[in-house]
Amino acid sequence: MRLRFTDRQIEMAHGAGGKASRRLVEGLIAPVFDNPALAPLSDAALFSVNGTRLAMTADSYVVRPLRFPGGSIGELAVNGTINDLAVSGARPRALLATFVLEAGLPVEILRAEIEAMAAAARRAGVAIVGGDTKVVEHGSADGMYVTTCGLGEADPRFSLDPATLRSGDRVLLSGAIGDHGITILFARGELELEAAELRSDTRPVTPFVEALAQTCGSGVRWMRDPTRGGVATALNEVARDSGCAIALFEEAIPVHAAVRGACELLGLDPLHIANEGQFLAIVAEADAERALAALRAVPGGDEAALVGEVRSKPARTVVGVTSYGGTRAVDMLVGDPLPRIC
Amino acid sequence: MRLRFTDRQIEMAHGAGGKASRRLVEGLIAPVFDNPALAPLSDAALFSVNGTRLAMTADSYVVRPLRFPGGSIGELAVNGTINDLAVSGARPRALLATFVLEAGLPVEILRAEIEAMAAAARRAGVAIVGGDTKVVEHGSADGMYVTTCGLGEADPRFSLDPATLRSGDRVLLSGAIGDHGITILFARGELELEAAELRSDTRPVTPFVEALAQTCGSGVRWMRDPTRGGVATALNEVARDSGCAIALFEEAIPVHAAVRGACELLGLDPLHIANEGQFLAIVAEADAERALAALRAVPGGDEAALVGEVRSKPARTVVGVTSYGGTRAVDMLVGDPLPRIC
């Protein structure tokens, strides 16, 4: 059964990472680019060159504003690409960066982003080996758009495959969700809201991935950094790909007070809000306790939690469950409540 | 001696591929991204992973209009990345494509570009294995910007190095220059000019590269696809990198009548106009005749010509010479006479 894409024009929701993005990619782009290495909604493509197993990923960044509490477009672009490689079970080996710059952009703004990118790459131990720069007229871009592309080498300690999910596997999360999306929303200044303690969570998730590799590499079934579309969208994708159900223990999911408050006020679900430094993994039941301890031992991992488990029914579905027995369907993101968050 | 970048804001010329682009990349970006694999103005970065020699390149495309006689942004984006790998002596193995789409873009326009990209990739025998899509508000992009990233495997038949240039080496060109840039200029409709016979030369240069590999791989010193900045800028770069002089036989350079006429009218030099399917190589003197014959035997290579030779003086300089003894300095592109041609 193939999804058909019948929309007549591009809307903001097509870039939001939820259902509309999925329809665009799976209904239009993937069928045309059709090839065995293309895995439409996974984080990186995996293929072999000369016997070496490689992963490759590219993302464009259009976040607005360019700088926000806790990070900036350049840092996001480098961390995002590193994270896509890492959760695909690959060690980052090289990055490229391209820029679309708006004429009139102050050079100091560009310099700050280039320095942020270099610092983020250095922190992750990977080099930015090339790129490209284009300039468009004033008014044809919002300051700058950045595209990063990353190459990684598959880490043989992992054998990730959603098809290996089985009932009882545990869902682990590295920390509190929603900080990035809500920070961006507040940073735009369009709402009469402020929260001094809000900061983007942008960071490389490589230390979490390495912690799992060392603890229980072969017991890890799936990893993901829940960016656009949030935790709900990422888990719906693995539910769909595996054919399993994911039971989400909603009370176990860490959400900072400012994020929870903003979501309540604005009618948003923290599970749909983008993160830029969080990490989800599904591990074998037998490995779950050690894996969680390993995540918590990572600096910045003290809020890591066991947030769900794999069940056989209802197939291809994410269900939120509460301690007093309530359940609700947790769907993918629909629409685009927070445009241009990355 | 290090170039310093002291400009205060980004101008169109910084994206034109000439002197201002060079100052931006070498004076600002490269020093911050500093690492051994970074070769600022070459077409692709070369490095090894697990003993396999790889090349990687990325370019953003912002051409306006999106479609023009002979091609479109999608075709350009795929051919351009394939060409950057090919002239770096690498066989393309995988491509990624990312899109920044403007809200309101008719889906039929996007579909046409995706189909053009798939066709171009198929023609070159390489797959588009992944990518990303972002959407910005209406007015924040001109329809769409496309970034392509390519991975290639180094072709062991080549050992390219500008340091190996020596006096007497010959400069070969695959065909007529300037068609792409002048076609774009006319396609914008801003000039009261028309030339029905003008078409972009966008194509993969891989057949030319393969012809040289089979004929005289080890005798090839340098290859380049002269895009932004044109033939003059590409040759100035190799003159500078090698420390040699390049004598350019200006009368031997094929230029179609419409391009020559437009350049005369507008005060442009065809040597500075962008090409998207031409190919320059410098080969050992002893190989030059066979190499030229091989280029001419490629379909679409009937206009290939021997257009220059390497000399020892004046060092780091390109000199145009004519049959009646005239000479002139041929400089890199300065300014941006034709913005957003790719």
CATH homologous superfamily label of the largest domain in chain A: PurM-like C-terminal domain
Average pLDDT for all residues of chain A:
94
The biggest chain-chain interface is: A-B, 84 and 84 residues
- In terms of quaternary structure, the protein is homodimer
Count of β-strands of chain A: 14
Q: Count the domains of chain A.
A: 3
**What is CATH's topology name of the largest domain in chain A?**
Phosphoribosyl-aminoimidazole Synthetase, Chain A, domain 2
Q: What is the N-to-C succession of helices and strands of chain A?
A: HEEEEHEHEEEHHEHEHEHEEE
What profile does the largest beta sheet of chain A have?
7 strands, mixed
CATH architecture level-2 label of the largest domain in chain A: Alpha-Beta Complex
Tell me the fraction of residues in β-strands of chain A, as a range. Answer: 15-25%
CATH first level of the largest domain in chain A: Alpha Beta
- Rg result of chain A: 19 Å
- Helical proportion of chain A, percent range: 25-40%
The chain-level structural class of chain A is alpha+beta
Helix count from the secondary structure assignment of chain A:
8
Description:
2 copies of one chain form a homodimer. The first copy, chain A, is of the alpha+beta class and 342 residues long. Chain A folds into 3 domains: 1-39, no CATH class; 42-154, 2-Layer Sandwich (60s Ribosomal Protein L30, Chain: A), CATH 3.30.1330.10; 162-329, Alpha-Beta Complex (Phosphoribosyl-aminoimidazole Synthetase, Chain A, domain 2), CATH 3.90.650.10. In chain A, 29% of the residues lie in helices and 25% in strands. Chain A is built from 8 helices and 14 strands. The first copy, chain A, has helices spanning 19-33, 73-87, 107-123, 179-187, 206-216, 230-242, 257-266, 288-297, and strands at 45-49, 52-61, 67-68, 71-72, 90-102, 128-136, 144-154, 170-173, 220-224, 245-249, 280-283, 305-311, 317-321, 327-329. In chain A, the strands form 3 sheets. Chain A has a 7-stranded mixed beta sheet.
